[in-house]
Amino acid sequence: MEFQTIFWALIVCAILQAVAIYMVGQSIKTIINTKSFRKGILNRDEKKDGAKIIGFLILVLAGGMGNIAFAQELEPAAEGVVEVVAGHPFYNRVAINILLVINLFMTGVLLYMRGLFKNFYKISASKELLASQKRVKRVRVNKILTDAVPLTEEESILLNHDYDGIMELDNNLPPWWKWGFYISIVAGIIYLMNFHVLKISPLQAEEYEISMQEAEIEVAEYLKAQALNVDEYSVVPLTDIGDINSGKELFNQYCVACHLETGAGVVGPNLTDDYWIHGDQINDIFKTIKYGAENGMKSWKDELNPVQMQQVSSYILTLRGTNPPNPKEPQGDYYPPAGGADSVTVELAIDSLTNNAMKDSLENE
């Protein structure tokens, strides 16, 4: 909620409380001027009650002032002024807290005056009047809860049904039960309009579908976030042709200057033979791309995210054994092609790339 809204809400509350205090004060003044009150006040001592209320007001005021002091401490010391909100000098924390203290103080005053009014009324009213008012209150409560006819008037609701001397009464249903029934009817109409006529809210099946779609989005975002956590220890070869193609595009963008588009090598080593300077596994290739090497290979961790480095590494595995023209002489140690996950990945990726190339060729013809 904005400071401006809170500010004016507190202003309105303070005005309403001031009006209420004035009206209660006038009522107290009227009672004080009665003879019955003057007579009854001689036997009463209101000092203790007044002291309790005044103590409460002092605590409210002290707590409010402490709240203002705390709010001022929160203000940045460098600014030296109260934060101004919405372009108005009064819409700030200190003004809000001052109004809050005023409202709390006026609430305490109103409660105290209400207590005085009740006590003064009891003093001025006769015992008979107070007793009759209590009876009226009990009758009203009974009417609201049960709507039952008093025992002295039950003859008026007797029915002409006599079962072995047991007479039947025609009492009304309890009002709370009837109102609950009426409210259920209104709730049913609102439900019908909301879900079936206007279709503002989805039904259970639709809500389930929406929840499942939202869950799929959340899972995808989670998997995407988890994919970015890949490193040289957890990286695995990618087999999806989309990832391989993405790796190829990144390779052509960043790596061809040193390794050529075919991977045959020029400044950098040949990536198509069985000789590798830093190892031939996906972990070794990923680590070299990420951190670079002493022979002039730069670190690409600032330009490529972990997923992109994994895609490039997986594409480089597909270049091995492709025998491009004019390859660079072997460098590093010999690593014989071995079976396993990486070789299977290479074969799958090469097959996918070959099939796509043949498909493109046929479409062009």
How would you characterize the overall build of this protein?
The protein has three domains: 3-125, no CATH class; 136-169, no CATH class; 241-364, Cytochrome c-like domain (Cytochrome Bc1 Complex, Chain D, domain 2, Orthogonal Bundle). The protein has twelve helices and four strands; from the N terminus they run αααααββααααβααβα. The chain has helices at 3-32, 35-41, 47-74, 93-124, 127-145, 175-197, 204-227, 241-254, 256-259, 282-291, 306-319, 341-364, and strands spanning 158-163, 166-169, 275-276, 333-334. The strands form two sheets. Strands 1-2 form a two-stranded antiparallel ribbon. It is elongated and about 120 Å long. The relative contact order is 0.06. Residues 45-50, 68-88 and 339-344 have low confidence and may be disordered.
Q: Which class do the helix and strand fractions yield?
A: mainly alpha
> Would you tell me the overall average pLDDT?
77
What is the ordering of alpha helices and beta strands?
HHHHHEEHHHHEHHEH
CATH 2nd-level architecture of the largest domain: Orthogonal Bundle
Helix content: 55-70%
Query: Radius of gyration over alpha carbons?
Result: 43 Å
What's the N-to-C terminus distance? 67 Å
Please work out how many helical segments DSSP would assign. 12
